[in-house]
Design the sequence.
């Protein structure tokens, strides 16, 4: 999160927004805490995947929001695969 240029409180807020957006796009029904966790963990997962592909993620709060959203969508998708 320090690499993205946001602090812990901003990461929680941005993670919550990213998780909420992913929840709406993926037609999922989760609570506020799960949205925050999905957004934060999703950003970590997406940054890791981008690193494997040698792609530099976007910096700042907007980059964190985009990577959190993409990562949260990936996590929701994987969660649905596992539940089957």
Sequence:
């Amino acid at each position: 999160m320090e690499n993205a240029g946001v602090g812990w409180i901003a990461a929680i807020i941005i993670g919550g927004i990213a998780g909420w957006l992913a929840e709406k796009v993926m037609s999922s029904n989760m609570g506020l805490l799960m949205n925050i966790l999905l957004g934060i963990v999703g950003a970590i997962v997406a940054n890791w995947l981008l690193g494997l592909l040698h792609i530099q993620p976007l910096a700042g709060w907007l980059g964190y929001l985009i990577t959190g959203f993409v990562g949260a969508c990936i996590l929701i998708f994987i969660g649905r695969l596992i539940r089957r």
The chain has one domain: 10-83.
